Amino acid sequence: MKSVALAFLALCSLVLNTAQAEPSVTKTDLLIVGGTESGWAAAIQAARQGVKSVTLVLDGDWLGGQYTEQALACVDENKGPGKVGWGVDWHPMKRSFHRSGLFKELMDRIEAFNTEKYGSPMPGRPYHGPSTFRPAEAEAIFRELLQPYIDKGQVKLITRHYPVKADLEKSGARPRLTGLWFAPTGSEQPDLHIQARLTIDASDWGDVIQVSGADFEMGADPRSRYQEPSAPADLSDYPANEMNPITWAMIVEESDRDTPIPQPDHYDDRNFVRTSRLSLAEMKHLKWDRPVKLGSIPHWPDQGKASPRQLSIFTVRRIVDGETSKDQRTSILLNYMLGQDYPLERLPQHVATALEATEPGASEKNIVLMTRAQRQIIFDDAKRHSLSLLYHLQNFVHERAPDKTNSFRHFHLSNEFGTADHLPPKPYIRESLRLKAMYMMREQDGRNQDGPNKKFARERFSQVMYPDGLFAWQFHYDFHRTGRAYLKSEGNTGPWIDYEKPGRNTSLVSDRSLFPLRSLVPIEMDGLLGAQKNVGYSSIVSAAIRLHDQCVAVGQAAGATAAISLQHDIAPREIPYDREKLEQVRTALCGETDAGVALLIWPYRDLAPAHPAFIAVNRLAARGILPMDVRSVDFHPDDPASHEWCQQIQRLASQSVNAANLPFTFDEGMTRGEFCQQLWAGLKNLPLRPYTRLQPDDADADGIPDRDDPTLFTPGEPVQWKKITSVAAENHNGLVSLIKSPQERRINFAGKNVPPLSGFESDQGAVFNPQRGFGWQRDLSQNMRQRKQVHEVYLDTFVFTRDHDRWECAVPNGIWQVTVCVGDAGHDQIGQWVTVEGKQIIQDLSTVEGSFQKKQTRVKVRDGRLTVEIGKTRAGTNTCLNWLAFEPIPSAGASR
Questions:
Q1: 522 Cβ contact partners less than 8 Å away, ≥ 6 residues apart
Q2: Can you say how many angstroms the Cα of residue 653 is from the centroid of all Cα atoms in its chain?
Q3: DSSP codes, 408-465
């Protein structure tokens, strides 16, 4: 009996101690999980919007995600026109954005630090020109930008914890996340319980989404899921664990002497076939069990003469160039060169065996679903693989380098991470789980329509411009090699090489696109928003939205959405249907505030945040108030604003607000940017006309459920850019007014078989004739075309040149107002040029099939002839001139 009593007392004591160990509840307004660049940005954005209590929990010690603890220390970004960097000089389309938002604030500080310490904002002078930084130094800047909000008590930072359990409230139409339980890293026992009004998942692997039970997807999407043209029709060769590979980056820095590392376990020189000891002929005779292509592999030569391409591993992602910086020591990021990537499918036997020992079938699980201990097995082998590459570089490639004093044998791993192995705390993570969101972004929404090869793609806005877009993005669908091939003779116990699977390549490009608010919001759970790479898009789209700047913007968008949701005590899912609330989110991201740099919402190429019209143009464009052409990716804010263009905008603006008269005046000589500033100042505080929601799950009642409808309030097929075939189309810039002044002359350019048009004189491409009074410098009668595609004949016809041609008309000297129209009813045209009296009014202009651009200017004629020049010498592209009009302007009203 005594032993039973003692056992009972011990049990009571255990229960009592367990109860006492139960963590106390901490309450917060906004809980953010993950110290990634997205989590960091969301915390700052929410604090700036006045959220009183923000709690940021991370599973390590470092803020900054891929910048810092993942060590991707050369910035992948889209820089402004004329700048060097990834996405500009590297790609034929030269896709580019000016830096904006928190990303610009961050990079300005990083580059200021670099300038002070190293003597240059880009001390690495890397081959492709991205900005560079030391990860530890960047982490200090992330912390510096967040610290004011910590000091104010708005933001609480908790490190080395991860979520293990969720609190769910199930009383409403859908479950609501109300809190999370956190365990210290290295343990599974929670010691922290946080209740929150709203939670953002900015973690590496969607930890909150998983523990909450919110729906998500992972791995490859079958084509049947989202009808994406590049998705595989079946997944037989795409196992559940196939996805964009991870890479364990390494930072190496120059040594005073040889500093070789020891040979790692399982080292096999044949893993690095791109620089193998084998001859090229021997490499091509290797029999792999998957279709590996070796034709483009830069083999290191036996003669000891390496090509610049092969030696570019020293320069492609160099962080600091010791020859030019104050530091005088070179440091280099090794991130993906020569087979460093680590595919996640078909794991090596020793890895698979270790995983199976933890759980049957673990080796075939997607890394997203693995436990932290199972992921660590993958991580350890990815580290070993990266170290094997460094060993290979230090030993084999060192022997072949022309200058052995400039080899990796004279480099050692940086100790800035404070880790025992001198490697970053985490791998570079390209793809996580994908939140099943209110809308899943699809490849066809934004993929360039000009062809499958990026070399022939041309700049344009995306096929769909989401009505709830919060920021601009653009990149190519960049999958690194996701497959793993083994030698047929040795299987998964031998060496392997990564290879590219069909549909998982980098030749497809996106257009200039938007990110919709709906892709942050779970389709079937409240109290939760996605961020970082845990958002609503397909696997293909995820490969294009993972850059440094994009992940910061995702975090900012999530933080702004959360703040407006908390301010009004509404679910984030209501905001896309509420025009006023949506505009409040946009105001937080791109509005007049001293808190930070405005974020680019609309993907214009030529607008920088410093331009006075930046906010006005972005906000008007996002509301659909500015006339658009799919190819007009530059806004030209400093060009003159035509009266007709301003009137057109005023009509569009009046349709969006509840106001009888807009506070608007048009001043002669006003620029386009100045007009937008004036209009926005009078428009921004007026009440908006609310959206009309016709059905609960199909807002525009077009038969396309909202979950599949990218444009919620646009009935019909989800395509925004339509070929214009009717004079009733208000945004058709090529249309002429039905009323013309008595002194105006209009010239239509058409072939001899086109009947004369009322109100137009006809030019059939003949050489200038004094009796007729107008004509060309040479005979262009063979360059006349009619497409029979649009109703308006003066748009359906045109004269074209692929070179440079001049048209003249005899007119009295004086000031003339001239209007020209270019475009092609049947084909896209790029690179069009028009000059009037030596004044360039159209330069490198592109028009999509069935759309037209009308430009107007005032010029002074001094020689009795009005001169219009089209095309550029040896341009290789067409300029298609549909019609022109001109009328004299009294000298008192003339302006240059």
A1: 209, 214, 215, 435, 436, 437, 438, 528, 529, 530
A2: 29
A3: GGGEEE--TT--TTSS-SS-B-----EE-BSS-B-HHHHB-TT-SSGGG----B-S--
Which amino acid makes up residue 796?
D
Closest listed residue to residue 196, CA positions, set 405, 26, 409: 26
pLDDT for 399? 55
Torsion sign (Cα): 168, 708, 518, 209: positive
Task: Assess contact for 400 and 306: CB atoms under 8 A.
Answer: yes
User: Can you read off the two tokens belonging to residue 206?
Assistant: 């969607």
Reported as a pLDDT band with limits 50, 70 and 90, residue 675 is very high
> Taking the CB of residue 279, how many other CB atoms lie within 10 A of it?
12
Q: How crowded is residue 358: how many other Cβ atoms within 10 Å of its Cβ?
A: 13
Indicate the pairing of strand 761-763 with strand 745-749: parallel
Question: What is the arithmetic mean of pLDDT over 825-846?
Answer: 89
333, 134 contact by CB (below 8 A): no
Identity of the residue numbered 18: T
Sequential DSSP letters for 297-364: --PPPTTS---HHHHGGGTTTEEE-TTTSTT-S-EEEESSGGG--B-SSS--HHHHHHHHTTSTTGGG
In angstroms, the CA 896 to CA 890 distance is: 13
Q: Same CATH fold, 745-893 and 25-237+513-574?
A: no
Locate 831 and state its tokens.
Answer: 């690179």
Closest CA to 427 of 540, 344, 539, 536: 344
- Percent of the chain at pLDDT > 70 equals 86
Q: Token pair for residue 245? A: 């590979």
- Taking residue 282's Cβ as centre, other Cβ atoms within 10 Å add up to 11
Asked if 821 and 853 touch (Cβ cutoff 8 Å), the reply is: yes
Which two tokens mark 138? 């960047």
Query: 701 near 709, Cβ under 8 Å?
Result: no
Considering only CA atoms, give the Rg of the chain: 31
Half-sphere exposure of 841 (CA within 13 A, CB side): 29
Measured between alpha carbons, how far is 36 from 148 in angstroms, rounded to an integer? 18
Cα–Cα separations (whole angstroms), residue 561 to 168, 200, 274, 477, 510 = 21, 10, 46, 27, 25
The pLDDT tens digits of the residues spanning 606-637 come to 899 999 999 999 999 999 999 888 888 889 99
Looking at 614-618, 679-683, 724-728, which range is the least confident one? 724-728
What is 25-237+513-574's CATH topology?
FAD/NAD(P)-binding domain (3.50.50)
User: Which of 157, 120, 127, 168 shows the shortest CA–CA distance to 44?
Assistant: 157
**Gap between the Cα atoms of 150 and 167, Å rounded:** 26
Q: Are 76 and 547 a contacting pair, CB within 8 Å?
A: yes
Dihedral sign of CA atoms 608, 609, 611, 614 in order: positive
CA nearest to 369, candidates 515, 177, 219: 219
Instruction: Report domain 745-893's class.
Output: mainly beta
* Domain extent listing, the chain: 25-237+513-574, 250-413, 745-893
Count of beta carbons in the 10 Å neighbourhood of residue 782:
8
